[in-house]
Amino acid sequence: MEKDEPLAARMRPRTLDEYIGQEHILGKGRLLRRAIQADQLSSVIFYGPPGTGKTTLARVIANTTKSHFSTLNAVLSGVKELRTEIDEAKARRAHFGMRTILFVDEVHRWNKSQQDALLPWVENGTFILIGATTENPYFEVNAALVSRSRIFQLKKLTDDDLMRIADAAIHDRERGYGRYEVEFAAGGSKYEYKIDASSGAILEYSVEKLPAVKPAPAGGITIEQAAAIALERVKGATMDDLHIRADRDDGRVVYEGAIWFDGYEYEFEVDALTGRITDWDRDREHDWF
Q: Fewer CB in 10 Å around end: N or C, the chain?
């Protein structure tokens, strides 16, 4: 682990016991937890919104299994890279009797022919597939692959989950801030602590970046006020639909973030001194269940 890695990378869970959230699929006695612990995983597809822990869960499996673990990103690789993994997996199986788990991140980004190239090697056991996708696999992934995999939906982390993640970072002496006297301010807004806690943004700003990013001058607005200003533009959206963090832009302090609501993603920037929205952009998201 590199000391200059971002907090989120340093605190990434290494074992199931460190993994927070998704109790509906990873709670004590649940099928997926038992399969991972027994190293008897069959092909699976994890799907859910960004930031729910799909890639992290795959890495936990990599740390747990005795099988060879290979990774491909569907955005950066194609059939050529897949053929290389197939040849290496066949060789390991023939010479050492070793299974290969292939993790394909953003598997929905492969087209039908690319997904078809993977199918026979999942069918004959050359690979145990772990697919990760933000899209509904029943619409975006080859039906044959879906039928040969167990589908697990990862849900958005709860407020309690985010607080536990933040608390773990504060008390971890090796990877977090356990060597410092860091605590949540009494009476502080829960939103200030939960927003982007899963990525470590709030803690990094509070502990690591505060000297570099000067607080808003007297009369400026808080991060919670900036969130409220942004939410006013999206009727029906709530704090649960929003992520926000403090940043610095050409010497001025800004609050930047995004709102995901009703099939759209709204990116925004709010000036910390004036409270004025200085940037606003809306993009259509692909609907999924």
A: C
